[in-house]
Amino acid sequence: MCGIIGYIGKRQAYPILIKGLQRLEYRGYDSAGIALLDNDLLNVYKAKGKVSDLVRFAEQQDVNGTIGIAHTRWATHGEPNQINAHPHCSQSEELAIIHNGIIENYAVLKESLIKHGYTFQSQTDTEVLVQLIDYVKKSNNVDLTKAVQLALNQVVGAYAIAVIEKGNPDVIVAARKGSPLVVGIGDGEFFLASDATPIVEYTNKVVYIGDEEIVTLKRGEDIKIKTIADVVKTPEIQRLELTLSQLEKGGYPHFMLKEIFEQPKTLSDSMRGRLNLEEKEIKLSGFIDNKEKFLNAKRIIITACGTSWHAGLIGKYAIEEFCRIPVEVEYSSEFRYRKPVIHGDDLVIAISQSGETADTLAAVELAKSHGAFIFGICNVVGSSIPRNTNSGCYTHAGPEIGVASTKAFTAQVTVLTMLALLIGKEKGTLSVERYKEIVSELGNIPQKMRSLLDQNDMIAQFAKTFTYAQNFIYLGRGYNYPVALEGALKLKEISYIHAEGYPAAEMKHGPIALISQEMPVVVIAPSAGMYEKVVSNIQEIKARKGRIISIVTEGDTVVTNLSDYYISIPDTEECLVPLLAAIPLQLMAYHIAVVKGCNVDQPRNLAKSVTVE
Ligand code: G6P
């Protein structure tokens, strides 16, 4: 993870870099730093903590300069402190670097640099890289771009880096492999960043840097790109489809709450141009172009991490029900290393909000190398995973800034549902009549979500009751088992309350031992799908004095009578319940975290985009 940003141009770099860091802070927020070139001076300021801590310190210093680089960190090598924060400088204090990623062979490189007289101040792999560039530069007597190129040829690992050089205030050299990097092209100025969010207010012309490419940004010249193997590349300038208002809180106290409330709209955006309600039809171009791959797939493997993995599980239920194709849902981090059996006629669906998750990207590469067809379901347009898949479908949820995923999750479920319905209809495993019924109901979901959000104040009230809890259990069956997992994850992530999601019937094989009058148990018990069975599970909890918070269908009388608190959701098709049931669980986690005084948008130890293993 980590966020990197750079600027070179006519304006003062400092305010642009700080504002950019604030936009990138979702990527990591345990320390931050900035390096500015002011004529012959190279000024580097770093601080443990948030970007605001860096600002407090830097404001007292010389922050002049029209070129600079800055970094917000999520620690991998070395604890989060001021010394390990980026930028790191070479021993000569001539070069400063920022880095997102991991240099895997840093120990070997470090040993050899020590033999050449280099000493190290930090525990980071990044300091090794900047010293290596310094060494290569001096021993080969080459310019900065060439030195970066030669050094990167010795590096194993992942990186997005930017380097500046004292006495050379006209150039930033940057490069990437595995970690994202985008350059914004302004009028006589360049911006570079981990994603386009810090760039959007200055320019909408961007170039996404490819793997193993080095970019030289020089004052008065055009952007230059070549590979680390020395092949010159023509930059492909793209237009950015992102607006500034999408990156602001718009009156909400937190991005997470804003994103929860955006869901009726993001769902409509996900379905726009794809769901035709008049004809009750779905059109997905990623499907149409590769129809045979979907219809002939003997097996579908879904690979993802975190919340995206939970969406994948819901996808499995839908695909198996409607398409009768066996589906395996794999954690990307396990899949990539456990020597999985992958056939050429497997269809692999990679799901990722960011499109940058290192494990999912590696899982995609692995599946590709076995000849499987890869379909990506991603949110961030132009990110690495969609660029490495054979086909795909964007979720179009818009930028998600709160670290805990909400609107991206429901958009992923929407896309997976549309895909399952379409494959099922085309294969003939789902009758046209049922297909049209569900398509039609899918179109009603945004409106049903809207009515559900009206219960926000009520949820905020009862959430206060549960801030005492140390543990929570979430239960669901069928399509709602993954929703239980996701509800528990939301609570864990932002309130630091331990929570477990379980298939409701599995509770009696262990977790029931935990039930006491202290234990809140959240049960997703809609009328659609195994209702009576879930009622029995609730009775089992009640008999042991557990406190029941239930999600029920409007009009329910049985479960509501058994519950301490309940939230009603509108009636819908069984496969669509997750889209509604997820909302109260998101709101409940949010309000509990707020009452507990937690940093909802930037929970401790987490980062939004995990670009390291
Ligand atoms: C991180 C985030 C999670 C996210 C997961 C997968 O852990 O904090 O919210 O679900 O990465 O991210 P992706 O971008 O691949 O969906």
Keywords:
20 helices; Rossmann fold; globular; eight-stranded antiparallel sheet; binds 6-O-phosphono-alpha-D-glucopyranose; Glutamine Phosphoribosylpyrophosphate, subunit 1, domain 1; 24% strand; single chain; alpha/beta; 613 residues
Summarize the structure.
This protein is α/β, with parallel strands linked by helices and 613 residues long. It folds into three domains: 3-245, Glutamine Phosphoribosylpyrophosphate, subunit 1, domain 1 (4-Layer Sandwich), CATH 3.60.20; 250-452, Rossmann fold; 454-599, Glucose-6-phosphate isomerase like protein, domain 1 (Rossmann fold).
- By DSSP, the count of extended strands is 27
Backbone shape: globular
Physical arrangement of strands within the biggest beta sheet: 3-2-4-1-10-9-11-15
Structural class: alpha/beta
pLDDT < 50 stretches: none
Largest beta sheet, briefly? 8 strands, antiparallel
Q: Figure out the total of helices.
A: 20
CATH topology of the largest domain: Glutamine Phosphoribosylpyrophosphate, subunit 1, domain 1
CATH architecture group name of the largest domain:
4-Layer Sandwich
Radius of gyration from CA coordinates:
25 Å
Bound molecules: 6-O-phosphono-alpha-D-glucopyranose
The CATH top-level class label of the largest domain: Alpha Beta
What is the percent of helical residues?
Answer: 25-40%
Count of all domains: 3
- How much of the sequence is in beta strands? 15-25%
Q: Please give the alpha-carbon distance between the first and last residues.
A: 10 Å
Nearest-integer average pLDDT: 94
